[in-house]
């Protein structure tokens, strides 16, 4: 965002209060953040229930990790990867 306020959704003849402008700006930031999260989620691989996301072994039918150690290891590796490559950790 360039800092300019897009008033395209508002009537140009209407005067907006500071609260209206703040609400509109907040809405724009929220929509941008949601779009960014959706894009990140679309890029990350989906976990397959019943298969451990860390070791690939079989686990409970609705689980994505076979135990707490695999979950912690996977989270740690994802965090390290994100730090090294400048991205937020995938979950």
Notes on the structure:
The protein folds into two domains: 16-45; 48-91, no CATH class. The protein has two helices and no strands. It is an all-alpha fold and 91 residues long. The longest helix is centred in the middle third of the chain and has 26 residues, at 18-43. It has helices at 18-43, 68-85.
Structural category is mainly alpha
- Find the count of extended strands (DSSP E, 2+ residues): 0
Shape: elongated
Measured between the Cα atoms of the first and last residue, the distance is 27 Å
Q: How many helices?
A: 2
What does the oligomeric state look like here? single chain
Biggest β-sheet: count, sense, barrel? Answer: none
Query: pLDDT below 50 for ≥5 consecutive residues: which ranges?
Result: none
Task: Write a brief caption for the model.
By secondary structure, the chain is mostly helical. 48% of the residues lie in helices and 0% in strands.
Keywords:
mainly alpha, 91 residues, elongated, 0% strand, 2 helices, single chain
Give the topology:
Layout: H1 18-43, H2 68-85
């Amino acid at each position: 965002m360039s800092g300019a306020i897009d008033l395209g959704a508002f009537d140009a003849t209407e005067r907006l209060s500071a609260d209206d402008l703040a609400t509109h700006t907040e809405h724009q930031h929220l929509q941008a953040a949601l779009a960014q999260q959706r894009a990140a989620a679309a890029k990350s691989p989906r976990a397959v229930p019943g298969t451990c996301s860390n070791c690939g072994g079989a686990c409970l039918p609705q689980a994505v990790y076979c135990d707490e150690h695999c979950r912690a290891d996977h989270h740690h590796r994802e965090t390290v990867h994100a730090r090294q490559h400048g991205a937020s950790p995938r979950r």
